UniProtKB/TrEMBL annotation, chain A:
It is found in: Membrane. Its main location: membrane. InterPro entries: NSF_attach, TPR-like_helical_dom_sf. This is Gamma-soluble NSF attachment protein. It comes from Sphagnum jensenii. Transmembrane segments: none annotated. Belongs to the SNAP family. It is a peripheral membrane protein.
From TrEMBL, chain B:
The chain crosses the membrane at residues 249-270. It comes from the Eukaryota. It comes from Sphagnum jensenii. The lineage of its organism: Eukaryota, Viridiplantae, Streptophyta, Embryophyta, Bryophyta. Pfam families: SNARE. It is a single-pass membrane protein. InterPro entries: T_SNARE_dom. Residues 177-239 form the T-SNARE coiled-coil homology domain. Keywords: Coiled coil, Membrane, Protein transport, Transmembrane, Transmembrane helix, Transport. It is found in: Membrane. Residues 42-92 form a coiled coil. This is t-SNARE coiled-coil homology domain-containing protein.
């Protein structure tokens, strides 16, 4: 009896397999038919003087869906592009943006990195066109995340564009994750000064929306990044600028920074390591910053002379 | 064993078995009205001492502190009264009494001293009872070190041993240092935990502040969508009612026409047989 049931199960699987293959073939046929028809409707000829986007767009969308289900990304990508064009022609930028994003995802599967960047940028522009800034920024962030391994410079551009979009729309609070991602990418690329600039920009955005915790953390992170880049003067200048703000000067992060600078002034590497290892503030920063802090001090540490104040 | 100890021991034994001593009872009866004032006073003092000892024992077993204080005060009062009687007893001890042996006469001062010691030894909640100066003499000091509070004698200050550490004080200091270090460790752990909590609380606060306007926006949009939906439903309802009423009216007319038609047909069908060839 059990053997019979098992045999029946196998048969059903086989049958299911056969059914799924047949189903797939059916989908491919449908998709190809839709694509052909839609291309025909959008091709100008002697009898057709205007492209019929109204009828072609749903066909393109159907074709794209079917191609995606049967895992034919190249054809699906083309179909989505055409569908997006159709929606733009019908003054529906929101749907067009969705199709462009789908095309971008498929382009990523095909490793066409330039196309990924283009598609996501176009999607973002379409979102902004219909007045939705947040989805526009999100599209840029998704695109940046998709290409950051292989095209980091483009990813950084997209991250900063997303931040700018949100800043212009007074939505700085939504940009904190973007700042973090951008600064981490800069650190990965060993561009420490740029990373520090992004962190300071993050602090400025946090100041605007009164997020004091993030602001102080961003400033301390910037100081640590400058110290890691072996530019003590930049770090000190950064600290002096930040300490002029009440919010930072009364915070625990300021005390931590003071201890760090004191250790640097004395020129004792052991003391610097001790300050960092015993600090209760540094473990709450971002993991990349903690990693940099644990490697301090970098380079030769010499005792720094405190500039004497001229009281004449 | 000294004479005083022997005498004390004998007194205890005699007291225990005095009910069997007929002579003493007879003598007590005589002495009460007799000439031996020493014996009389001695007996009275002994009885008072017994009463005081009984009170001090009650005070030691009592739990109520107020009662204990009262009893101790009474014991101290009795002790001072008894000590005041000792000089009188000493004078009477030296007086010659008739029919008294030389040994007994010689033993009387010792009896007085024993009695005075007994009075001193009654516990009154203040003095525990001295056992000689052997308690503080440790660490090979030549003189026993007594701890005095607010009683700095210049001689004590000049003594070289005054500022030296004893084993006890060293041990105490080490224990103090160890406990303080342990406390510091514990406080550091608490501080680290509190810093973490503060950081988490700050982040939660920021996140909530970030989410608040978003939720307000969602709230507004949902309200607007709900209002639109409500309007749409009302319009749909009106349209449906209108459609249905129109349709009903048409259907009613059609049905009436059909019924009239059928009725007319039946009437003509029924009426035609009556005009048949039977006429």
């Amino acid at each position: 009896m059990c053997v019979k049931i098992l045999k029946l199960g196998k048969l059903r699987k086989l049958e299911d397999g056969r059914a799924s293959v047949e189903e797939e073939r059916g989908r491919v046929k449908v998709a190809q038919r839709c694509m052909t028809k839609a291309n025909y409707l959008t091709t100008l000829s002697f009898t057709r003087w205007v492209k019929d986007w109204a009828n072609a767009t749903p066909l393109f969308e159907q074709a794209a869906l079917n191609f995606k289900l049967v895992k034919m990304p190249e054809e699906a990508k083309l179909a989505y592009q055409q569908a997006a064009m159709g929606q733009i022609k019908q003054s529906s930028p929101w749907t067009a943006a969705k199709h462009m994003e789908a095309a971008g995802v498929l382009a990523k599967e095909l490793s066409c990195w330039n196309e990924v960047v283009d598609f996501f940028k176009q999607a973002s522009a379409l979102y902004v066109e219909c007045g939705k800034v947040q989805p526009g920024a999100d599209a840029l962030i998704r695109g940046a995340r998709a290409v950051q391994e292989l095209k980091p410079n483009d990813a950084l551009t997209m991250y900063m564009d997303a931040c700018r979009l949100l800043e212009d729309d007074n939505r700085e609070q939504m940009a904190f994750d973007t700042y973090r991602a951008a600064s981490n990418l800069y650190i990965k690329l060993n561009k420490y000064r740029e990373a520090a600039v992004v962190l300071l920009r993050w602090g400025q955005a946090a100041n605007k929306c009164k997020a004091t915790q993030s602001q102080c953390k961003a400033y301390l992170s910037a100081i640590i990044v400058y110290l890691y880049a072996e530019s003590y003067e930049d770090a000190l200048a950064c600290y002096n600028n930040c300490a002029s703000m009440d919010v930072f000067s009364k915070s625990d992060q300021d005390q931590c920074a003071q201890l760090l600078f004191l250790a640097y002034r004395e020129g004792r590497a052991n003391e610097i390591k001790h300050v960092i290892s015993t600090s209760t503030i540094i473990p709450h920063l971002d993991h990349m910053i903690i990693r940099l802090a644990k490697q301090l001090p970098q380079g030769k540490v010499m005792s720094q002379e405190v500039p004497e104040m001229d009281i004449t | 064993m000294s004479v005083i100890d022997i005498l004390t021991r004998v007194d205890v034994l005699c007291k225990k078995y005095e009910k069997y001593d007929l002579d003493k009872q007879r003598g007590a009866a005589d002495s009460m009205s007799g000439n031996d004032q020493f014996l009389r006073l001695y007996t009275v003092l002994e009885a008072d001492i017994e009463a005081a000892i009984q009170k001090s024992q009650d005070a030691q077993s009592e739990k109520n502190r107020a009662v204990v204080a009262t009893l101790n005060a009474e014991v101290r009062r009795s002790k001072s009264a008894l000590q005041a009687e000792i000089p009188k007893l000493e004078k009477l001890a030296e007086k010659k009494v008739k029919d008294l042996s030389k040994e007994e006469m010689a033993a009387r001062p010792d009896l007085v001293v024993a009695l005075a010691q007994k009075i001193q030894d009654i516990p009154d909640g203040v003095t525990v009872g001295r056992r000689g100066g052997t308690w503080g003499a440790k660490a090979g000091a030549s003189k026993p070190v007594e701890i005095k509070v607010d009683a700095m004698h210049p001689d004590d200050l000049m003594r070289p041993e005054h500022y030296e550490q004893t084993e006890e004080s060293l041990g105490f200091k080490q224990e103090y240092e160890a406990r303080r270090a342990k406390q510091d460790e514990g406080l550091d752990v608490i501080a680290a935990g509190l810093t973490t909590l503060k950081d988490m609380a700050g982040d939660i606060n920021e996140e909530l502040n970030k989410q608040m306007p978003l939720i307000d926006e969602v709230d507004t949009k949902v309200d607007k969508a709900a209002a639109d939906l409500k309007n749409t439903n009302v319009k749909l309802k009106e349209t449906l009612i209108k459609m249905r009423s129109n349709r009903n009216f048409c259907v009613d007319i059609i049905l009436i026409v059909i019924i009239l038609g059928i009725g007319g047909y039946l009437y003509t069908y029924i009426s035609t047989p009556f005009t048949s060839p039977f006429i």
